Amino acid sequence: MKKTLTGLAASVALTSLLAGCAGDVQPQYPPKELNDISASTKVDSRWSEGVGDGLGEATYPIEPSLLGSTLFAADQEGLVEAFNTANGDTRWEVELDNPVSSGLTAVGDDVYLATRNGQVVALDQSNGRVKWQTRVPSEVLAAPQPTTQLLIVQAVDGTVTALDRLSGDRQWVFSANMPALSLRSTGTPVVVDQVTFAGFANGRLSIIDNRSGQQVSERTIAVATGMNDIDRLVDLAGQPVLTPDGRLFVTSYNGRLVALNAQSGETLWANEVSSYLTPVLVGDTLYVVDESSTLIAFDANTGNELWRLDDLYGRSLTAPAFADGRIVVGDAEGYVHFIDATSGRLVGRTHIDGSGISVRPLTDGKRVYALANDGSLEALDLTP
């Protein structure tokens, strides 16, 4: 049976992440204490609400989704809610029959998500009505990704399934060879109408033809080199970033940060950076949180490091987001931190909830929405 690691949000030694392990283990990256900062960013709470039971003890990666003036969020028990972003009022809420395990994706007239038993669900954005449900081979942690006609779903067993967006009918299934041990986190694919770029726990990136489900090509991003299964973890757990001009940025655990030509697969540059989180690209700068929770800014054209911030070392940061000139990250103690995107200086901080934050803060480019592990949801306005 394939084994997975749990608790990516916790800054503990990898051995403590093995399913079934018990006992006290010292953190691999002891978290730094927070120091006072000269805050030039004022953070105001516009509204706060609760989303059911939150992410649960396993902290499922149930990242909300934002579309227009509505934010869609869910808890691990199956509660799905739509909030008015202006004031936090609930527009609708529904209770699904199965516990939710994946992030949400709102697109067109639908909201897509998946459950622990491998059900992919399409909800009507206007009222939460279930339009269709389709089972895929395994549990899904990654948010389903849409093309014009398809919904691409990557499951924890290494399968990628294409469903018809209107009906939920299965179109094809692609299967990757998975290692015996992997992080309890699934790479989220990047899709365009023609192809899907899917990263796997074997350290490889597959390019899949969306018409047939056949693999067009494969690129090795990270190579397993350790003496044991833990040292040999090379998961591509973050979502690749695809640019309009055809560059693809891919992170890997115990591996590299790689920039590729998406069409030819040519490596444009690579750096030895271990990360299981999705980076964010702003202009010509790529921001990456590595496994030690160091935030690093790279020139996206050359791969040269521009700056790094280690003030939040060991604090189990979320993947980074961008809002109005600032990089935004949450941490395991429930703080949201704001970093000047140009200089790498901490410029603001606010506390949401002591249960911690493990999913990436959501932004519309200006406002920030932070979801804590217990379901506390807060809308934050930044000034200046």
Number of helices: 0
Distance, first to last CA: 53 Å
CATH top level class name of the domain at 31-57 and 285-384: Mainly Beta
CATH architecture of the domain at 31-57 and 285-384: 7 Propeller
Give me the count of strands.
34
In CATH, the topology of the domain at 31-57 and 285-384 is named Methylamine Dehydrogenase, Chain H
How would a textbook summarize the main sheet? 4 strands, antiparallel
Unreliable residue runs: 6-22
Shape: globular
Instruction: Provide the β-strand percentage band.
Output: 35-45%
Would you write up a description of this structure?
- The chain is mainly beta.
- Among the domains are: 31-57 and 285-384, 7 Propeller (Methylamine Dehydrogenase, Chain H), CATH 2.130.10; 61-175, Beta Barrel (Lipocalin).
- It has strands at residues 3-5, 42-50, 65-67, 70-74, 79-84, 90-95, 105-107, 110-114, 119-124, 130-135, 145-146, 150-154, 159-164, 170-175, 181-183, 190-191, 195-199, 204-209, 215-220, 241-242, 247-250, 257-261, 267-271, 280-282, 285-289, 295-299, 305-309, 321-323, 326-330, 335-340, 346-351, 362-363, 368-371, 376-383.
- It has a 4-stranded antiparallel β-sheet, with no helix packed on it. A 4-stranded antiparallel β-sheet has the order 3-4-5-6, with no helix packed on it. Strands 7-8-9-10 form a 4-stranded antiparallel β-sheet, with no helix packed on it.
- Mean pLDDT is 92; it is low at 6-22.
